[in-house]
Amino acid sequence: MCGIVGFVSHSGGGITYILHRALKALEYRGYDSCGIATVHENRIYFEKDKGKIDEVFVQINPEELPGPLGIAHTRWATHGAPSRENAHPHLDCSDSIAVVHNGVIENFLKLRKELTSKGHNFKSETDTECIAHLIEEFMSNGCGIFEAIKKTIRRLEGSYALAVVSARDPGRLYCARNESPLVIGLGEDGNYCASDIPAFLFWTNKVIVLHDGELATIGSESVAIENVNGLKIEREPVVVSWTADMASKSGYPHFMLKEIHEQPKALRDTLKFKQQTIDKFAEIISQAEQLYIVAAGTSYHSGLAAQSVLSQTIGIPSQAIISSEFANLVGNSLSENDVVIAVSQSGETIDTLRAIRHAQSKKSKVLAITNVLGSGITREADLVFYTQAGPEIGVAATKTFLVQLTTFTRIALKLLDNFGTNSPAYTENFREKLNQTPQALNQVINKLEIKTKSLASFLAEKSNAFYLGRGVSVSTALEGALKLKEISYIHAEGYSAGESKHGPIALVDEGFPVIFIAPNDVTRKDILGNVMEMRARGAYIITLGEEGDKELAQVSHQFLDMPQGFSLPFSPILYVVPLQLIAYYTAVKRGYDPDKPRNLAKSVTVP
Ligand code: M6R
Predict the structure, then answer these.
(1) Do residues 75 and 22 share a domain?
(2) Which of 251, 397, 448, 555 has the greatest CB tally within 10 Å of its CB?
(3) pTM of the predicted model, to two decimals?
């Protein structure tokens, strides 16, 4: 939540353009207000306002923000409503220190009181502003800027990724992190810091990940890192395989649509990535006394699907638990013989990080599945598998659901190879089908995109929808409903079809849309019964079923035919995609921007 960026250039020109472009790549982290500060000849120049990045930057005259270095911020409000005053950067009393911040300063009220009593004048309601004044206070007591920042962060409680510039130091910017992501980019034309790699991918893919408790001094040709105790840190940059094109829309109207279309490639890349790590995951899982999967949102839905995949294919029981409830639910029952798999696209979801910490406090083994190099989760888990989705910029998760599930399916296959009691033919068919999923997915998109678009025109007029499934398809239903509600603002509920009769069916009347996920597996017969019950109450039935399933097609008002032969464990990977397309086109039809749904940010770093 919130994106920060900083740049120090060799040449001194074009700072506003670069910071604007970099910030755009972080817009998924928040978009209610934004701002920029540059330093030129011992003076800070800044602009900020409420509104999305392009709306605010169109009013900024780059000539009026001169200088070779600057910082910028895009906000998702936590302390104080979206407004010009609360937008970052925040400055000290004399406008000579500017700060951008991602995170939450938990002791800000105490600090604010202390600083106000010393004569500091606060202009916003934010927790961040106390950082600028605290630095000012230390500097007025004789500290240099770096020392003042170091002393300041020792006083901060909570999470932060900070970038700071000072009018007294027009050649360098400073950054620090604790529990909020911060990466440094080493470019030809200068050096960067940012909340996430896509911010500077257009200029460089050489990255240094800053760790908790570390600070960096960034010049145009140098980066020096030390920890809060003054220990100097030497860290080699890593070269990431992501490209600028991956983080751009490449001609698509929205990132979400581009990312839906990238899914076959994401599957292919994830299928061939690091067999050794998959083997290690399988080995650790096979020794677990209890196996838990912790995640939030879409990642939780993939965890739920994985629970069915592991139990149905290899007979390994597991429990998928929403991260924010993990400690409450498992409490002290965890032990060192248990294994917790944390799943997170961003690797920064605070609830998931807290679940990991709870697991580690009980000495359980923690495995992580994430998409983002150097994210918080990767430093806290015992072993990490990186999904190969490439950057996912649209706030609604799409390709990461598929690649997370592909990862679990690969683990299930490895377990089958090692311990399966199924016939060799079953395992071979499993392997073959898994490898065919990218191609099958291509066919699904080619065949069904137009149909989902016309269904979206129908759904766009509705206020409610149900998504129903059984078995592994409950997770597909939950994910389909989440997609529709979060980007089109239509109330949608994902439910177990069996459970729908225990209450939700009361809502159904003439024309109420009910979307059934009905692959050709053991649940199909019961689903058919549920379709008839909903139909008898006037529901408008949309069904996703196997091509050639005439019986289902006949009882549906709309039938989306899916490829034959892809039931459990593959059905969620394929069946969720038409649901993503339906949600996307419904949002567009209703005039909303699917990439930036209201009130949401892509990584949720506050509990
Ligand atoms: O980065 P994570 O996978 O940990 O994020 C979890 C959720 O915040 C995320 O899936 C969220 O629900 C998305 N908006 C879903 O589209």
Answers:
(1) yes
(2) 397
(3) 0.88
